[in-house]
Amino acid sequence: MQLGSMIRSERHRGPDVWEFRWREAGPNGGRVHRRMVVGSVEKLTDESAAREAIAGLHLDINRDDARNY
């Protein structure tokens, strides 16, 4: 099961944000890097709070993984 990674990214304007990053299979069989902004560090104060915010997303990311069947 893929867990992805959570990083804190700086912004030029505004507060830092939490970004969730993962890889998935691309159209030509290679791996494609994806990332999604989860929220600001003002709303989600630490990494565990950011991971809780995306808990349901893991099911969607892993739906095409043959190892889950």
- Structural class by secondary-structure content: alpha+beta
- Along the chain, the helix and strand elements come as EEEHH
The helix tally amounts to 2
Instruction: Specify Rg, calculated over alpha carbons.
Output: 14 Å
Strand order of the largest sheet: 1-2-3
Measured as a percent range, the helix fraction is 10-25%
Strand content: 25-35%
Number of strands: 3
* Structural domain count: 1
N-to-C span: 11 Å
Describe the overall structure.
This protein is an alpha+beta fold. The chain has one domain. Helices cover 17% and strands 35% of the residues. It has 2 helices and 3 strands, in the order E-E-E-H-H. The protein has helices at residues 47-53, 57-61, and strands at residues 5-9, 17-25, 31-40. A 3-stranded antiparallel sheet has the order 1-2-3. Strand 1 and strand 2 (17-25) form a beta hairpin. The chain is flat.
Q: What's the gist of this structure?
A:
The protein is α+β, with helices and mostly antiparallel strands and 69 residues long. Helices cover 17% and strands 35% of the residues. A hairpin with a 5-residue loop joins strand 2 and strand 3 (31-40).
Per-chain topology:
Layout: E1 5-9, E2 17-25, E3 31-40, H1 47-53, H2 57-61
Antiparallel strand pairs: 1-2, 2-3
Q: Could you name the key traits of this structure?
A:
3 strands, 2 helices, alpha+beta, flat, 17% helix, three-stranded antiparallel beta sheet, single chain
